[in-house]
Structures are given as C-alpha cells and as structure tokens.
Here is the input.
Amino acid sequence: MLANDSPIRTVVVDDDPYIWKLICRILQIRFGSSLSLSGTSDVTQAIELARSGQIDLCLTDLEMPDVNGLRLLEA
Here is the structure.
C-alpha cells in the first residue's frame, strides 16, 4: 500500500482480454485489498487513465497490435 494506506491503483493492459483478466485475478488473490485493479485491451483508455493521474502502476503486454507496451509506458 502507499504511505497513506490507500490501495495501489493498478491497470493491466493486454490486447487479449482473457490474459488481462487472468493477471488481475492472480494479483487480486495474491495482494488482495492492497491493490485497486482494473484491466483493459484499450490502449487509449490506459493512456487517458495515466494522464489523469488515476493509476500508480501499469502492467502491460509489450507486443500489441496498435501500440507496443513501451510506447504505452512512454505516454
């Protein structure tokens, strides 16, 4: 958790919805309420979340059809 005991706002980005849902489930089981999890296949949505300051951590696939994960992290 962050210093103020709020959950770490985490987004998982993968072009395959099954994969990001699976990763979110595994993280939820392992870390419980210390993470606030969301997932998406929409790179644009992930960029908007990051720019708005609504996420603390981004886990992303590196190879996606529209934008690769490194470009996403740069944004």
